[in-house]
Amino acid sequence: DVKVTQSSRYLVKRTGEKVFLECVQDMDHENMFWYRQDPGLGLRLIYFSYDVKMKEKGDIPEGYSVSREKKERFSLILESASTNQTSMYLCASSHDREVSPLHFGNGTRLTVT
Amino acid sequence: GQNIDQPTEMTATEGAIVQINCTYQTSGFNGLFWYQQHAGEAPTFLSYNVLDGLEEKGRFSSFLSRSKGYSYLLLKELQMKDSASYLCAVRDSNYQLIWGAGTKLIIKP
User: Fold this and answer.
1) Inter-residue contact B97 to B48 (CB < 8 Å)
2) Kind of pairing between the strands at A64-70 and A19-21
3) pLDDT tens for residues A60-111?
4) What are the pLDDT digits (tens) for B47-79?
5) Closest chain B residue to A44 measured between Cα atoms?
6) How many contacts (CB atoms, under 8 Å) link A and B?
7) What kind and span of H or E run contains B45?
8) Please, which residues have CB within 8 angstroms of residue A107's CB and are 6 or more apart in sequence?
């Protein structure tokens, strides 16, 4: 079974802090994704990566950046946390872009005060 | 724009059958996914449809009509553990996933 591990289940940070969310997958997947999930909205794609050191902006990249130095690890960075970034953050990976489903981590619930 | 519509909430009785609908308008179509998400947990993959018709997997079935931009997820012999949100997602012509907001299914004894 694919395992996608997110480093924290819950985080509380202050406005203006730099926040790192870590994600590791163990199935040698090429593709990794960061989403945020808010009540009443579908999953919204922040950034994705189809290869090491490669990154592409999703639908809502503003205020975020990512890093993929190794194939198994994809990090999401909030450069200066704001209250509107309070959300559930989900990391996912997939074997290919065409037909494979996404495998999700358990999520990180981030609260910015 | 691209859009996925599904009901916000549904209620059903333990042991019964429920059908959760999903309609979509997307730029192209490269497959439709259903995921289950229990409260506070990650979405887990349930089914994938790329051709018209019904795909059956145990108590769960998923149907697709590409000409109508329509899919449904059918859950039979409902159990209390089926209480969850069900997410519909479509892969568009660029292989990006477009997500519905999810349907919260409440199962009553």
Assistant:
1) no
2) unpaired
3) 999 999 999 999 999 999 999 999 999 999 999 999 888 899 999 999 999 9
4) 999 999 999 999 999 999 999 999 999 999 999
5) B99
6) 47
7) strand B44-49
8) A6, A9, A37, A88, A89, A90, B40, B41, B42
A31: nearest Cα among A87, A89, A91: A91
**Cα separation, A86 vs A89, whole angstroms:** 9
**Interatomic CA distance for residues A42 and A47, integer angstroms:** 15
The residue type at B56: E
Query: What local confidence, expressed as pLDDT, does residue A97 receive?
Result: 83
Closest CA–CA distance from residue B101 to any residue of chain A (Å): 4
Structure-block tokens of residue B56: 């059956």
Neighbours of B36 (CB within 10 A): 20
Instruction: Residue A48: name the closest of A37, A38, A58 by CA.
Output: A58
Find the chain B residues whose C-beta atoms sit closer than 8 A to any C-beta of A. Answer: 4, 8, 30-31, 33, 35, 40-45, 48, 50, 87, 89, 91, 95-102
What distance in Å separates residue A29's CA from the closest CA in chain B? 16
Distance from CA of B30 to the nearest CA of A (A): 7
For residues A92 and B35, what is the distance between their CA atoms, to the nearest angstrom? 13
Residues A46, A58 contacting (CB under 8 angstroms):
yes
Q: How far is CA A26 from the centre of its chain?
A: 16
